[in-house]
Amino acid sequence: MQTTSSRGPDRPTGRASQSSRPGAGSAPTGGGRGSWERGRWVVLLIALVCAAPVIASYLAYYVFKPKGGTSSYGTLIEPQRPIPESLVVTGEDGKPMKLASLRGRWLLISVDRSACDKACVTKLYFMRQVRATQAGERERIVNVWLRTDGHNVPAAVLGAYDDTDMLIADPSAVSAWLPVDAGTAVTDHIYMVDPNGNLMMRFPKDPDPSKIKGDVTKLLKWSSIG
Fold first, then answer.
1. Is residue 152 part of a domain?
2. Are 142 and 104 in contact (CB under 8 A)?
3. The pLDDT of residue 148 is above 80
4. What is the mean pLDDT of the chain?
5. Is residue 186 part of a domain?
6. DSSP characters for the chain?
7. Which domain, by its residues, includes 68?
8. 66 found inside a domain
9. pTM of the model
10. Which of 133, 136, 113, 148 is nearest to 212 (CA)?
11. Cis peptide before 79, with omega less than 30 degrees from 0?
């Protein structure tokens, strides 16, 4: 009498089934490369985030050139002129300090004799108004008056512009650093220095304060530094 296996028709065993699947038992390929590429993108992203303030500061130099090729109201200073480390000024407390120590905020700078005539007062007034109109951004700006002598400042000027840093500086050192328009003197202009300590803009003689405000507003908007 013939006996029949309880297993029914012959089937491949589990071991044979596993070995018959393509790629069974082999190590996955490509995983190491994928991890390396992901790591590279993470590093690049971190580098981009760290470089963002620098990119923004460079962008700020060129956002004033809209379509049509027109430039900002102020003249962009190229190449950059950093505050000379040798430029020492005397503070209101009578102590010497490097002008470069003011790096970290935007500086609006005027240069005049301590007697401060009408043109001098006008520039100080424009600087104060430009700063005041920046609303919540105004603390990013410091107004600086570089006095070219050590004489007394009129009491009326001291009282009206007590929010301006009044510093005594060597006029020859200041003139060597600050460029002028043809036919003008360093005392005719208002200058702007970025938070990295680079002279970046010169405003014309007898300026329009509303146009200065426009340039400054754009700078503060497009640059996160300072």
1. yes
2. no
3. yes
4. 82
5. yes
6. -----TT-S----HHHHHHHSTTTTSPP-SHHHHHHHHHHHHHHHHHHHHHHHHHHHHHHHHTT--TTS---SSEEEEEEEEPPTT-EEE-TTS-EEEGGGGTTSEEEEEEE-TT--HHHHHHHHHHHHHHHTTGGGGGGEEEEEEESS-SPPPHHHHHHTTTSEEEEE-HHHHHHHS---TT--GGG-EEEE-TTSEEEEEEPSS--HHHHHHHHHHHHHH----
7. 51-222
8. yes
9. 0.70
10. 133
11. yes
Q: Is residue 144 part of a domain?
A: yes
Could you tell me the CATH number of the domain that includes residue 73?
3.40.30.10
Instruction: Tell how far CA 216 is from the center of its chain.
Output: 12
The number of distinct structural domains making up the chain is 1
Residues 28-55 pLDDT 10s: 455 566 677 777 777 777 876 665 555 5
Partners of 109 in beta bridges: 144, 191
Q: Please write the tens of the pLDDT for every residue from 57-109.
A: 555 544 544 444 446 899 999 988 999 999 999 998 899 999 999 999 999 99
Q: Distance between CA atoms of 107 and 124, rounded to whole angstroms?
A: 13
Q: Are 142 and 130 in contact (CB under 8 A)?
A: no
Query: How distant, in Å, are the alpha carbons of 4, 124, 128 from that of 160?
Result: 115, 10, 10
